[in-house]
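Look at a sample.

——
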Amino acid sequence: MRGLTWAALLGVEGAIHAKYEAIDKDTPIPTDRQIEVDIPRCHQYDELLSSPEGHAKFRRVLKAWVVSHPDLVYWQGLDSLCAPFLYLNFNNEALAYACMSAFIPKYLYNFFLKDNSHVIQEYLTVFSQMIAFHDPELSNHLNEIGFIPDLYAIPWFLTMFTHVFPLHKIFHLWDTLLLGNSSFPFCIGVAILQQLRDRLLANGFNECILLFSDLPEIDIERCVRESINLFCWTPKSATYRQHAQPPKPAPDSGGVRSSPCFSSECPDPPKTDLSRESIPLNDLKSEVSPRISAEDLIDLCELTVTGHFKTPTKKTKSSKPKLLVVDIRNSEDFIRGHISGSINIPFSAAFTAEGELTQGPCTAVLQNFKGKVIVIVGHVAKHTAEFAAHLVKMKYPRICILDGGINKIKPTGLLTVPSPQI
């Protein structure tokens, strides 16, 4: 049932056979040569995919995709991406093609543009921030030795791991991937790194390169379990990408959600004034920790918004990770209005010359919160990013920055003023 189940999860519908039949899969095209070279190297341990019939089907499905997507190009790795769909729908090429055509825009939107560097660069930068968010010690080590995602993760994401795992593992992994949204792959990536964590931490650049040139055996069951856990700990907006597929306007389903998800909202929610803003790639690259939206912060703090900023009804408390808001503005600004429950550690005096946290009642609270989600709020983006980077250096996990700073929260009427001390 897997082939049909996946098709249903991908929302495949309509006259798929007529559509597939109508595509010209015979006229020679420039991509033919590359396809001919790739197919005999693609998951050939499998007897279906290595059979002459398998090769012919591969060729037709890949050509159909290339011909029907004139704005995109054939990149090496597309064959690997096709393999799971072809295997599961071996006697139904039209369905294999339809599934692949639905999968790519959801998880790999614009990855197959002729010039895809801006899309890939943004993706890898967000992935780096996810490593820092979930595993600062590993992130610090990999950055120090210069072992950046560009060196190993492109084939992971470009092929959604089909280039690095055999089919039986891919089926298991994708059963879960297809229930998540387009940011779930980041969590799979972090889970793989965490399985190799001890070896990575113990080694330098050259050893890491060797380790990844032939990826060791990965326990896929554990990878799936840990990916889900990472996904549940990640605020929705932390993986925001400018180049992700734009959210479709949701049909009003009368409050019923059609697909099961690990997060409360799987499809990407529509943009509001409190959503994340796009920033230039260089600015994104300069920040170690991810930004989260004001919307997420309000949701995670369970604050009630007044006026025209209406948030959806509150969800049950059980799934909420606890979080701490650290306001790094000076104390005068803090007293004039701050987020309820936040603590004040002014940036100018937060760290000693040695880079340690200055001791005080507020830093003690911060230390007690190590391991929970910590959101840094200020009004100078550079300062919040630096403060966050300091905490990551000190191995604080789950650090993020409020996108747009305190100014995003001001219009919501959520800032509180302490009662005067009499």
Remarks:
- DSSP finds 21 helices and seven strands in the chain.
- The two ends are 71 Å apart (CA to CA).
- The beta strands are 291-292, 323-327, 338-339, 343-344, 373-377, 399-402, 415-416.
- The longest helix spans residues 117-134.
